[in-house]
Design a protein that fits this description.
single chain, 349 residues, Rhopdopsin 7-helix transmembrane proteins, 79% helix
Length: 349
């Protein structure tokens, strides 16, 4: 997934105003990332350490969270390069590094949204079809899915190193940019449509469908208890959606701009909107990679005093135990419903 910092316009007066505005937005974005960077790095490293060293029973949910922490943590480790870029408003690194960093960043961000989607699908299987789809909840099957997920994320991130390059900005010619430079408008449409469909619409369609199925199952079985792990995953899903929505809206505006002539008022207006909000959307997108450890901390606050730094291990183990309890309760509810149906039939006979 691409991250844009500057966009070209045509009017020189507008260029000067936009350059000053972009400079303020870039500095503000860099300072915000500087505040979140320690939280993101330390938090995701704590999750990885807690799962690998302190978790005795690594459930499927734990494996998914481990991979999500790795993806988010890797993105945060790349952030210092972009913080320097935003502060200096000049790409001081090499062209190959521009392509490699954006490729790695895109891969891990795609992996994050796919992992969150997989969490939702796994919860749906565990709640709705848990007694008929055992193969879908086995460790070996999930490990194969995770390997395929990472390979797919690596594959669909290829457009980034293809289109990303370094060039002088028309707004500020003294500054060297590391950004997308599409040869033709159809390349803009191709790349951004790929990001919107595979990185947002399709995953969130599956996520929403999964939770609708879960809610329907809960209502049908008259099972009203909420499970900590489901609450946690739902909050992760909502947070991730809110942090990525501005980014994809900017992509939609850029796609819309390709359908207007270069000198049209509508195209200039769309460019102005993107210039005003692209820095904000990029900053919020990066923040999504460090917010999950904060959510885990709130979810596991009952374990902090008792377990210390190992509280996340107890949180994930607790999620596993609660999920098993839920399955047993679902089975009891189903058995009770069957007994009631048999009783009604006997009464009729």
């Amino acid at each position: 997934m691409s991250v844009h910092f500057l966009t070209n316009t045509t009017d020189s007066g507008t260029n000067n105003i936009t350059a000053v505005r972009n400079s303020a937005v870039s500095v503000s974005g860099a300072l915000i990332l500087c505040l979140f960077l320690p939280i993101g790095v330390s938090g995701n490293l704590l999750i990885i350490w807690s799962i690998l060293a302190r978790t005795r029973h690594r459930s499927i949910t734990t494996l998914l969270i481990l991979n999500l922490a790795f993806a988010d943590g890797f993105v945060m480790l790349l952030m210092p390069f972009f913080i320097v870029y935003w502060l200096k408003r000049n790409w001081i690194f090499t062209l190959p590094l521009c392509k490699i960093l954006l490729y790695l960043c895109s891969t891990n961000m795609y992996a994050s949204i796919f992992l969150i989607t997989l969490m939702s699908l796994h919860r749906m299987v565990a709640v709705v079809w848990w007694n008929h789809a055992g193969v879908l909840t086995e460790r070996r099957a999930i490990i194969r899915v995770l390997v395929g997920l990472w390979i797919f994320a690596l594959g669909i991130s290829v457009p980034n190193p293809v289109f990303y390059t370094t060039f002088r900005s028309e707004l500020e010619p003294t500054f060297l940019m590391c950004s997308c430079k599409h040869p033709k408008p159809r390349h803009v449409i191709l790349q951004h449509c790929l990001e919107i469909v595979l990185g947002f619409l399709m995953p969130y369609g599956l996520i929403i469908s999964s939770y609708m199925c879960i809610l329907c199952r809960i209502r049908r079985t008259r099972f009203r208890r909420h499970i900590r792990s489901e609450k946690l995953i739902l909050v992760i899903v909502v947070t991730f959606g809110l942090t990525w929505l501005p980014f994809h809206i900017m992509n939609m505006l850029e796609i819309a701009g390709t359908f207007f002539p270069e000198d049209s008022h509508a195209k200039a207006r769309l460019n102005q909107i993107r210039l005003s909000f692209r820095g904000f959307s990029s900053t919020v997108t990066f923040i999504s990679s460090c917010i999950n450890p904060v959510l885990y901390t709130f979810a596991g606050k009952l374990y902090i005093k008792r377990e210390g730094l190992a509280f996340m291990a107890r949180l994930f183990e607790g999620s596993r135990i609660e999920s098993m309890r839920k399955n047993r309760q679902n089975q009891k509810n189903q058995d009770q419903e069957k007994k009631e149906e048999v009783g009604h039939l006997k009464d009729r006979i």
